[in-house]
Design brief:
- The structure is a homotetramer.
- The longest helix of chain A has 24 residues.
- Chain A folds into two domains: about 80 residues, ACT domain (Alpha-Beta Plaits); about 200 residues, Formyl transferase, N-terminal domain (Rossmann fold), CATH 3.40.50.
- Chain A has a seven-stranded mixed sheet. A four-stranded antiparallel sheet of chain A has the order 2-3-1-4, covered by helices on one side.
- The first copy, chain A, is built from eight helices and 13 strands.
- In chain A, about 35% of the residues lie in helices and about 30% in strands.
- Chains in contact: A-B, A-C, A-D, B-C, B-D, C-D.
- At the A-C interface, strand 11 and strand 13 of A face strand 11 and strand 13 of C.
Chain lengths: ~280, ~280, ~280, ~280
């Protein structure tokens, strides 16, 4: 069996589902998953479809025919992924280690279908962790007045290893526009608040000051506006007046780990689609 | 515009989605929602689809053609619902009033697209509530040794008003097999535990005794085995050692109200399908 | 048995708990609940204590002695409540009825230990609900350029009935400063977002636009800064890209009802204490 | 400053709180935390108290005086812990690695105030993980007909290192009575269901079969009756009909990790007290 995952968005029109599913059927494909959504306001159609084909089917041919027969007709933006080499994921960290331990533990447990060719950090602190998990560690200091040097080094490393996805695992630096543009909707950050509340620095301190009864975490794609990119996943935890800022930070660690891990998993299983600074999450 | 909701289950086969969606497209229908699921273990295909047709379309003709062209070919069990008269819902109660207040409040707020031709009770206590909401109230005592009389009266009332759905809003009597068979998958009960834990009587007492840290509620279709029918919805609430049985009962009220209301809403919007004593819940 | 509830806050000092509990013991009281909290940053001590005394105990005498022996010594701000007449609660509404139905259903079920001498509204729409629950309904239009007239009428009604607590059950008007000052920490509002996100008008519209994956509701005491008062309770519900604004509004109704009800219950059971625009919630 | 944590339970009586807090005050202690609970049904008083004393205070003397003046008077069962050497925790594993990775990640991050002198396993599979975290790994096969050999080896290892707490991190063997008796309320297990639902083997399979809409995990102290010991912590996750058993197992991993970690943290911070097969959890 060979399997494809098809992601589509296009102007809404009558007959899209019938056309796509008939196309698959005509090519002897067996649809094992279909989910669709229409943004009624903007009249945009979104679809995710998984299909299995007989072993001998040439996916290249199917792609070509899909482009000609379906894609052009409905003015689709589409990707057809085949189960192939896993995504190459780079992890950026600073000094906090809990998200890094969590990701690497999941990776070693076989929970994440990726390779991790590099961990990049602006500090040396977490190097021993990278080493104990046998992952190459690249220290890239980000110094005042020399940020462009760091950026160039980042791009060089990422391109050399043909990185597909960047995960900011509590990386405490602003990502410069060039790097964001080189990885559109392919940089996932974890922010330690239920955005849009407490964007920016020190969200736990702000949450404590405001006296909220819940704290949260948000994983999102990085865009040029800080903490304002498309949200992939959020979750929360109840707190009370008796929790100090230190307690919030500690309680928040589990939230951050889980919300980031869910975001990564959704991305690598091709279940996210971005439109108008929002995500469609297929389930 | 006229709108249909189509619910299907049948042996899994290749091409079902293409056939159904092409059928809709050929009849000038516009699919506005599709969700499907395959029970891989039992090889059963399930689908829910909503479609809009032009005003003049005769749904009767479409139904006939669907039966002949699609339904028979794939050995489908299917229903095609048209937006018509709302469901007729009967509420059974005993002495607890919180679920009744909740359902009637939602009904008056326009949240539930049903009519409520009757409230049936084995006690007179809640009659004033029925009256203040202008709903006919039928007291039907269920007496030892005379349970068959009550059953006959129930069936008579339900059939006279052509009731579609029965909601047991903390009704403290066992439903006899005849009544269950007359309303298969059309009687919704709320049980005050996260089933299968604490089935049967006094679940809050059992939860207290066991020292659980969460309590729950479960709405399910009633089958002949007590508290063992297909689960529609469940939710939970955190508790601690400091909660007395009385506290659990009070805390549980909100759970019961919400979990029952969600179960009712899923049923009346045709989003539930029962197979093998489990529900498929389309979202 | 006669029972007291004691709420205290004062500068933190050594020996407060020992002094207070010994005082209770010396007066033959039996402590059945004690909870305390120290705001370490501001060095403030908070305590809530429930105690039972023999029937014949004169609480007036105990109060006097507590003031002289304990209160003054530790510069306490304190209230000693005796189980007496229930609080008098006024409900303000506009046109949304779901919170009103919820509160009145709970009230009639015996869940809320209050009397409700009045429902005040700037519209006539919900009058029939008030009538069906036998609660006096006072329409007080809030007209442009004549807001002071409305305010005067509000104060007159509230003072005439000696109202203790005002609940804004989706009341769609800004409360003027005079009314807020007349009821400090005694006006509870429900805001339909997880504050501080989406303060102000149309939070569900903003939540939809931002693409959040959770929505929330917040009950808080009203202060002069809009939606910025001390938070009593918050809760959230998960949503997805597929939910329209209308869906959010509908889903949010249950959140609003529950979060407001919890806020009311905490207040009337004397479990809230406000300090520095934050609440201490004793459990 | 030297700090104590005091845990008490005794028959309920008037004046206990006053006596204890006055005792602390008289010895120049500053109470920084107090929480108490009365089991009204069984008339048992429970208390947890933290207090700071001046550096020079001899805790041994205080203990002696507490025993004579307070403990005997109220027939207390009590422990007075001083901040000293961290607990010695042994981890038992089989082949599942996710809980082990999670615990070791937290340990290395400084989240758990323990030492981990050993990981014991009935298989060799997880030895490399132990090594990468520099923890001694002891393989102890548990063979049919030779279980007593394993038990003896376990006891020998545990006693040699003076282990205080055993954590069963998805250890797939029944713990024999002798070992349980040697570590009463000091063996924490993680069970992958919301107990008492789905006790015993293969809870995810049972959950799938029953069609529940929530799955859970439970951390509890091990007693001789399987999966029936005092519950420390529980949490749940929502699922749907579309989740296969494999999905449940994967989704459950995060629940297991978090619920076990919370159980461990509550135990090592002396916030749990067991009575009548239930836990009191001080917060």
């Amino acid at each position: 069996m060979s399997k494809i995952t098809l992601l589509i968005h296009c102007p809404d029109a009558s007959g899209i589902i019938a056309s796509v599913t008939s196309f698959i059927y005509d090519h002897k494909g067996n649809i094992i998953y279909i989910d669709q959504y229409v943004d009624v306001e903007n009249k945009i159609f979104f679809m995710r479809l998984e299909s299995e084909f007989a072993e001998k089917t040439e996916i290249g041919v199917i792609k070509e025919q899909f482009r000609n027969k379906i894609g052009e007709r409905y003015q689709m933006t589409w990707q057809m992924y085949t189960a192939g080499a896993p995504l190459k994921m780079a992890i950026f960290v600073s000094k906090y280690d809990h998200c890094l331990y969590d990701i690497l533990g999941r990776y070693k447990s076989g929970e994440l279908d990726v390779t991790i060719p590099m961990i990049i950090s602006n500090h040396e602190d977490l190097k021993p962790i990278a080493e104990s998990f046998d992952i190459p560690f690249y220290p890239v200091p980000v110094l005042k007045g020399k940020k462009e040097e760091a950026e160039a080094r980042h791009l060089e490393l990422l391109q050399k290893e043909k990185i597909d996805l960047i995960v900011l695992a509590r990386y405490m630096q602003i990502i410069p526009p060039n790097l964001i543009r080189a990885f559109p909707n392919r940089i996932i950050n974890i922010h330690h608040s239920f955005l849009p509340a407490f964007a920016g620095a020190k969200p736990y301190h702000m949450a404590y000051k405001r006296g909220v009864k819940i704290i949260g975490a948000t994983s999102h794609y990085v865009t040029e506006e800080l903490d304002a990119g498309p949200i992939i996943e959020q979750d929360i935890s109840r707190i009370s007046h008796s929790h100090s800022i230190k307690d919030l930070i500690l309680k928040g660690r589990d939230l951050e780990k889980i919300v980031l891990a869910r975001g990564i998993k959704l991305h690598i299983s091709r279940k996210t689609l971005v439109y108008n600074n929002k995500t469609i999450i297929f389930i």
